[in-house]
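We modelled the chain as a single entity of 345 amino acids. Its sequence is:
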Amino acid sequence: MRTDGIQTTGTAAPEPLDLRIGELVEVRSEREILATLDEHGRLDGLPFMPEMLRFAGRRVRVYKRAIKACDTIGNTGMYRMERAVHLEGARCDGHAHGGCQAACLLYWKDAWLKRLPDGDAAGAAAPGEGEEPAGAAGCTVATLQQATRVEDPASGEQRFSCQATEMPKAAPVHIAGWDLRQYVEDVRVGNARPLPALRGLAIHLFNKFQAASGRVLPRRLRIHGGDQYPFLEGRLPGKTPKELLDLQPGELVEVKSKEEILQTLDKSGHNRGLRFDVEMLKYCGTRARVLSRVRQIVDEKTGRMIRLPGDCIILEGVICTADYHQFCPRSIYPYWREIWLRRVD
């Protein structure tokens, strides 16, 4: 009989840990984690990926409570996640997914973590402590490796499967846009502060009104033509320009001003197919170092590996804070064209 709260059925524990942001936790051992997974390497529909095994036994602080996730596959809004957190610095390195460079922030179920005793904030767990025999729920490390690829039943093509591609199964409950309780929950768990949460709510409601006005009001009666706040619209009617800097990891750059960037975008807000998102506006005029050049990512909609032939950069510490997107805690790295940046000597 288990007495430490670990599940062996692929179903989350009935009592959540209710972890606090900043709390130091310990990732359970490989064997303990395998014992919580079903035969497909999942818990409540959420895959435990091979890239996560390197954290087993380590102690890491909670970064955000993963209480919800934005739908980046169908763009249908926000979905509820249960009994999960994000950990500081715990991002996917893509080694088991064809070298995907998206560096997504990983999801950790409560069942994969241990709350530390009071006052125990340093050191590592004793080797083998609390381990469960591997495969207690029919899952092995080989199962995790095999689960990273799935076969398209129609074409037979091999595609990748990860937490991002499987998010609709892991977070199936839709959160209505008018459900104000989500903002209360964001503040309660510490994902957002009260004033930014109120501002985000006001922007969300305003944009809902804008969307409705675009359907029922004549253009002359709409606010700013019915556009979504913060009214980000490119200046160019057709082909967009490029500027190649050959930036390398570690180089210091400055993000250009909003007006400079708008001069590089088409009317839909894209530069050579890459969208400049409203969440990137807050970084205009700031400086950061290049984290990496992104050349390939897994398409979350199809599971295919997409090769990115154009310049695509991610910057250290520059993340989507979801100020305009209901405070989704995923902290995705935005992608930058080099024409939006300038090298700082």
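As a brief sanity check on the tokenised model: The CA atoms of residues 198 and 297 lie 35 Å apart. Confidence is low (pLDDT under 50) at residues 1-9, 123-136.
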